[in-house]
Amino acid sequence: MLSVLRMTPAGRLARHVRWCLAGPPRGELTGRLSVRSAPPTAEVGVASDWVVRVENHSRRVWPRAGAGRVAVRGRWITRNGGDYGGPIEAALPRTLLPGDWADIRVAVPGPAAVGDFTLAWDLTAGSQAVTGSPAEVIPVPVTFPRATDIDYHRVFRSADLDANSWWVVGAYHSREEYERSAAARRGMLVEQGLTPDSRVLDIGCGTGQMALALEGYLSDRGAYYGTDIGREAIEFARRTYRRPNFVFAPGEMTRVPFPDSAGPFDLAIFFSVFTHTFTDESVLLLAEARRLLGPRGTVIADVIVTDLADRAAGHRGEMRVNRGHFLRLAGAVGFGAKVIGTFPWAAGAERLMIRFDRTR
């Protein structure tokens, strides 16, 4: 009831009189800003609603327009303390008399990158500072839009793999592009020690891009074992790649379905896997690879790294990780890391190809 009375004309007049008689010096702008409602997370480029309350504690009228107008300003701040993007400004809903206050609803667009951000709010008044109102800083994790998240089980169930197995696993523009990518990846693996006699474990094999690349390369002494969470993809690979030393089995998000007796493998590959798994899943998969690798076994994997996240940010559509955090996790399960390729990716992020060798 009191809050309703405060907003009536009589209540506004009473506050105006009180602040003019007892408030701060007439020339000083004094006020308070507080965030009344904030989203728990934000999405890249998607606007979210915030409610910011401003209170005029000075003896001056706060105009909503003109050269001396008072407004609220929001700034996205990175985890390292730097501004990210331009400021967000919102005008007062009306002129505020001394002692008056107002709630301002602001549609705030998410920043252009995922990460661990804060949104800092303050009051602006042209060239004059508003005293008594330190910036209010709210932590806001930023992820990709929910609309770009992916359910890989649904993707495989709904795909016509016989018609477009080359497209569903990587959105390649043509089968020729898919095959060139497979050959390039094989060449990179050869540079890292792959031989025709190698035993290869492919975790996240999809419909068999690397099986295609290795089918005519591996000798009968070599072997290829592929696993994926998509049963439809595994069934397609089984009927497509029929060499007796090519084995396919459906797995789970953090479990490789092959027993210890299937190893030891010389090489485990994770292509476009850690770019879609959460870090706790990634480290469990690395531990599974270590279980099946020989003493001199190697892992080759790609990851998307960013300095904007403390640990990781994103979802299954795309996951970006803090480089130092990811390498510490790999070290905890017995792998040392060496970056063997760096590729531009997006603002605030790059894609790395990493070689992991056993340290114990």
Describe the fold and architecture:
The protein is an alpha/beta fold and 360 residues long. The protein has two domains: 142 residues, Immunoglobulin-like (Sandwich), CATH 2.60.40.10; 210 residues, Vaccinia Virus protein VP39 (Rossmann fold). It is built from nine helices and 17 strands. Strands 9, 10, 11, 12, 13, 14, 15, 16 and 17 form a nine-stranded mixed beta sheet that branches. Strands 2-8-7-4-5 form a five-stranded mixed beta sheet, with no helix packed on it. The radius of gyration is 29 Å and the shape is elongated. The model has no long low-confidence stretch (mean pLDDT 92).
Concise account of the structure shown:
By secondary structure, the chain is α/β, with parallel strands linked by helices.
CATH class of the largest domain: Alpha Beta
CATH topological fold name of the largest domain:
Rossmann fold
Helix content: 25-40%
- How many domains is the backbone divided into? 2
Distance separating the two termini:
69 Å
The Cα radius of gyration reads 29 Å
- Shape assignment: elongated
Helices, strands, pairings?
Elements: H1 2-6, H2 9-22, E1 31-37, E2 42-43, E3 47-56, E4 71-77, E5 88-91, E6 101-109, E7 115-124, E8 136-143, H3 152-158, H4 161-168, H5 175-191, E9 199-203, H6 209-215, E10 223-228, H7 231-240, E11 246-250, E12 265-270, H8 279-292, E13 293-305, E14 312-315, E15 318-321, H9 323-332, E16 335-346, E17 349-358
Parallel strand pairs: 2-8, 9-10, 9-12, 10-11, 12-13, 13-15
Antiparallel strand pairs: 1-3, 3-6, 4-5, 4-7, 7-8, 13-17, 14-15, 16-17
Helix pairs in contact: 5-6
